[in-house]
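Morning!

This is the sequence you dropped in the shared folder:
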Amino acid sequence: MEFRSKTILGEEDSAFARSLFKSMGYTDSELKEGKPLIGIANTWNTLVPGHYNLDKVAEYVKNGVYANGGTPVEFGTIAACDGVAQGHAGMHYILPSREIICNSVEIMAQAHRLDGLVLLASCDKIVPAMLMAAARLDIPCIVCVGGPMLGGIEFDGRKSDLTSISEALGMVKAGKITECEYAALENTACPGCGSCSFLGTANTMCCVAEALGMSLPGGGLIPAAYAARLRHSFEAGRAIVDLCKKGITARRIMTPAAIRNAIKVTMAICGSTNAVLHLSAIANEAELDMNVVEEFEKLSKTTPQIAKVNPAAKPEMEAFHRAGGIPRVQERLGDILDTSVMTVTGKTLQENLERYVYEYPEDPEIIKTVEEPFSKTGGVAVLHGNLCPNTGVTKPGAIDPSMHRFVGKAKCYNSEEEAEEAILGGRIQAGDVVVIRYEGPKGGPGMREMFKAMKYLYGVGLSKSTALITDGRFSGTNNGCFVGHISPEAAEGGPLAIVCDGDEILIDVDEGRLELRVSDEEIAKRYETLKMPEKHIPNGYLRLYAKTATSADQGAIIKM
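The structure's back. Tokens below.
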């Protein structure tokens, strides 16, 4: 097998490059022709709890690469924390950071002719960015995540997590808990590092990486605190060398069938709505001829929800892992999945499932069967209607059944901050539909999450009597009646821009409808006088993103 790295290490004039490697202490043995040069793309930093342990993970990956006859080389790239960025201007940068991470991995792999990559990440936009880079590069790649954090102290009837703090703030405002109780939660909700302990976008995308076949079986949900996480990392290092020797590249794994499998798993576990965005972007990078949003819409109707964890239920990620995690879900889905697809083990999904050993007993309260599911349809749904002519996305698996059909009066806000101020200020009442607009990919810019707005509604006791719709996104941990990703967005003249306070809005999750109950004549009249609010976009990357980002239904990718 001839490797790409021969260009820099095995040609007549390669002494030039080898000399540079030797300046860092690399030896002739490591640089010998025939050993694959394995890049470890590490997003470790001390700003992101989900990435805090990736220095240790990288150490074990390197050991695995060495053990199987490869040479590891490590480089870093950025990673930003959604939690720290919530509710302020910093969130504008989170989704756009996905493209920067993807581009930086591409640059490092191509400039140094790396033969394969182990992609280290755990959190929201970073895991999808790594998968996008793998699809773009089409070289052997494995995603190795850092694992979720453990759940915190008991609060409001379940183990607490980061989102409990936002819910608790609403409870303080409503007089349900004391300031002392709120302060104590700050120290006990997040007991250690890892991706947040609920099925938000971070853990959803770790599960998606596994469901795509791009992570080793069982690796998506091993908690960061477990020694098994390090053992898994060592095996990822060994496996990437085998992939290079076999010539199994990312696009041989990330096929249309694999994307559909990932969508079905997302449906089955009631994963984050952001998976729609990210799988669309991944399919685009893999140059697949498929409309991912249409696939979500179609497969939602035929894929049962068989797993239920926080935010749709009390169990957290540690409990989901112990119940069998993604392998158990895949096994239970059975013929619903295409098990003939290739994976990073060098074996098919079917072969992986036949060999998989469960370390803990099953838990039917967390993972059910196809015959007796939590729901006969998927946990994520696509909506249509005159308010979302392209699409809108919601999460029926996290919405109380009594709220699957909701009719209410609009209260409109042109930014996340305005809406949050109104909620905490007591200006939202039962029966309202909170409309947050100009928060899409272009209008935000950056398509911020409306996470805090939903949590504040919960905290003040309105989660089962109000709804929220937006051209922005939601965190995977949100529950309540919501519709996001509304396309086209308000900044591009989407109908969300002409909604007025008091308008009647229908949300029908089961029928897949989002309707503004205003006549076509009135809508046309409003468009004639529509004036977009001015929004200052600072010089720099956000301005470029605002000019080049596509709508949510296309994955919010940069497209020239």
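Headline: The first strand starts at residue 37 and ends at 42.

More detail when I'm at my desk.
O.
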